[in-house]
Design a protein that fits this description.
It is a single chain. The chain is α+β, with helices and mostly antiparallel strands. Among the domains are: about 30 residues; about 80 residues, TonB (TolA/TonB C-terminal domain), CATH 3.30.2420. The protein has five helices and four strands, in the order H-H-H-E-H-E-E-H-E. Strand 2 and strand 3 form a beta hairpin. The chain is rod-shaped, with a radius of gyration of 74 Å. The model has no long low-confidence stretch (mean pLDDT about 75).
Length: about 210
């Protein structure tokens, strides 16, 4: 028997035919008993769908922390160079003491101390050889002053001329000083070996 005859034999395909027949019987029974309808009803039921929302994590609006401050690293340690210092050795010399019997040389002669200058004597009510009359100042008249007193010292040189005039006191102050100095500076005295100071009291009085 060849391959074609083997394929055509009924015994070889019998199991397959029996399985198909049984399957058709089961399908027909399901249709008759309503099992298929229940399956369709179950499929037709509405499906419930739930939408699950994604829960977002709320991040608070806080500013980010400041960056850490980086400390400046210390400078590298550099060891100082080694310097060898040679200390010279000082040789101590023995102290030599000598004694002498010679007398020390005489010192310089004593310096004469300058004698303090003595202030010339003050003469009061001393009459000059020639004098210039004092004048009542116009400034005193403008200020309404009609009288005053001035005490002055005239420094007389040995030749009788007046070297300087100083105001000792004045009443009123600085009203008649210029006129007193002007007049006394032109006074002349008798020459003497030593100069002196002449004190004068000058009274001013405005007359009509």
């Amino acid at each position: 028997m060849d391959y074609a005859d083997q394929q055509r034999s009924w015994g070889k395909h019998a199991p397959s035919i029996i399985f198909v027949i049984i399957l058709h019987i089961l399908v027909g029974y399901a249709l008759v008993s309503g099992l298929a309808r229940k399956v369709v009803d179950v499929i037709k039921q509405p499906l419930e769908t739930k939408i699950i929302e994604e829960v977002k994590k709320v991040i608070p609006d806080t500013p980010p922390p400041p960056p850490p401050k980086l400390a400046t690293p210390p400078p590298p340690f550099i060891p100082p160079p080694e310097v060898n210092i040679v200390v010279p050795i000082q040789q101590t010399q023995a102290a030599i003491t000598t004694t002498t019997t010679e007398r020390p040389p005489p010192g310089p002669p004593p310096v004469a101390q300058p004698q303090p200058t003595t202030q010339p004597a003050v003469r009061r009510n001393f009459s000059p050889v020639s004098r210039v009359q004092v004048i009542f100042p116009r400034d005193a008249i403008k200020k309404g002053i009609d009288s005053g007193t001035v005490v002055a010292h005239a420094y007389v040189q040995p030749d009788g001329t007046v070297r300087e005039v100083r105001i000792v006191s004045a009443q009123p102050s600085r009203v008649f000083d210029r006129e007193v100095i002007r007049a006394l500076s032109q006074w002349r005295f008798a020459p003497e070996p030593v100069g002196f100071i002449a004190e004068f009291e000058l009274n001013f009085k405005l007359t009509d």
